[in-house]
Amino acid sequence: xxxxxxxxxxxxxxxxxxxxxxxxxxxxxxxxxxxxxxxxxxxxxxxxxxxxxxxxxxxxxxxxxxxxxxxxxxxxxxxxxxxxxxxxxxxxxxxxxx
Length: 98
Hints:
This protein is mainly alpha-helical. The protein has three helices and no strands. The chain has a domain at about 30-95. Helix 1 (about 15-30) runs antiparallel to helix 3 (about 60-95) and helix 2 runs antiparallel to helix 3 (about 60-95).
């Protein structure tokens, strides 16, 4: 009895099906959640910082916002990276599954 079938009468997965399952699992391990959320989190931080610093006349407001804006650009590049990785993995998965 194989570890793959869920039921005794279920046919065993083919080698190609096993490979597709492994590729899907591997794709899920590529970290992407943080890349997706980071630009939004930085936008929210920038709004909050701009408001609080302006309200209290705190120094270095513009410098801090500029630094956060640079990190937001970097986060956007990270998001593009994770999208490209996903596109490539999906292409590989489809090529094996066909």
